[in-house]
Amino acid sequence: MDIWHVRGGRKLKGACRVQGSKNASLPILAAMAVSPLRAELSNVPRLRDVDAALRILRHLGCRTEQEGDRVYIDSAGMTRGDIPHELMEEMRSSVIFMGALLARCGEARMSLPGGCRLGKRPIDLHLAALRQLGAEIREEEGEIVCRGGKLRGTRIELPFPSVGATENVMLAACAAEGETELCGAAREPEITALQQLLCAMGARIRGAGSGRIVIGGMVPRPALCARIPFDRIAASTLACAAAATGGSIELLDVDAQQFSTVLYFLNRAGCDIITQNSRVCLSAPPRLCGVGDLRTAPFPGFPTDAQPVLMAALLRSRGRTRITETIFENRFRQAPELRRLGADVRVSGRTAEIRGVERLQGAALTAGDLRGGAAMILGGLAAEGETLIRDEGHVLRGYEALDERLRALGADIQTEICNEEKSDGDDKSDAPAGEQAQ
Ligand code: UD1
Known about the structure:
Radius of gyration: 21 Å
Shape: elongated
Largest sheet: 4 strands, mixed
Bound molecules: uridine-diphosphate-N-acetylglucosamine
Number of helices: 14
Strand order of the largest sheet: 22-23-1-24
Strand content: 25-35%
Oligomer: single chain
Helix content: 25-40%
């Protein structure tokens, strides 16, 4: 259990470097298993999810070393294509190893992530797409067993631009004979990062970012150095933290295009925003304004991962905001906790309405997921008095040294961190609250 003590009421102010991207690191680490390779990755965030991915690589027979923000991986000696339940349970997004294992070993065996059944956290799009490449996939006693035999390139149409399914197809198709055309692909920046990495590994891939990705196999190269790009959700979180407190922040080494919808809504809420080369400067008024209607959507739409932190920033706004969550059904779990601070947030189905209040008052909250936990920290920063957040380790799965970064900006925040290792990805579940495999 990690405990976050936040004393609110201080305006955040200053410049901040943003961590490397969690959501880019995880598929890139899975890609290390695709071919025998020595790789040096830099700007890798120190996160519990990254540790979980490295443990999976070691289980598969890869050698890994971590030194500061660098990770060295040697996957030449990889010996197996199975991931045991304990490791799958540590991180739900470990399902992206499926495509990599199919490419390398021609088979993959793993339990369903988090022990959920297909209905609760569907991976049907992943499985259907991999089947189209020629993989034989069966469910055996809670395990997914895939045999690739000879994968063959084909045309695959995704009915929804699933990020995970797009990544799995890109990884598996590296080993397919002929060309794979993936239509309806996800367009997130993390897909472009994966394409760049796979190209450096020797793959012929083009189209990432466009919705139509063409993969023409791979001639493996033995070594590479690559840098993990910045984390657009961590950048959004820091921008929202500054906005929540009426402060100002300069985000360094970022690409504003990658979180432009978040910046657009912060600007609509009254923040001044200047973007210059790889810097974004945001200056917030003492109270934001409501932004009207906002819907989450696949990239380039408003990211579902930034929805809880923008909600937190708007709790003290003048006016109303209506957020419709279109990606995940149960992604307002932060709302009842934020109400304990005195916020007026009403959830009805997939919509949450925020009616800004003048003051928030510190309270004791419990974080139930990664981004919701971050939203509670932001709520605490905007509230008067002390907020205590009990967190079963969710926040540190995705945020590197968030407490230190916020303290450097002037926040009064202390943490009692315990070294628990379980990981739950971003914890967005399609199951109703209470039914989730935690
Ligand atoms: C999601 C986010 C991504 C974010 C990541 C980490 C979207 C579209 N995706 O990716 O931006 O970086 O979380 O937090 O915003 N689905 C199915 N069947 C499947 C796969 C998915 O029905 O086989 C549904 C999910 O239930 C969900 C939606 O598709 O409603 C989004 O899924 P997907 O993009 O695959 O999720 P992640 O890969 O986790």
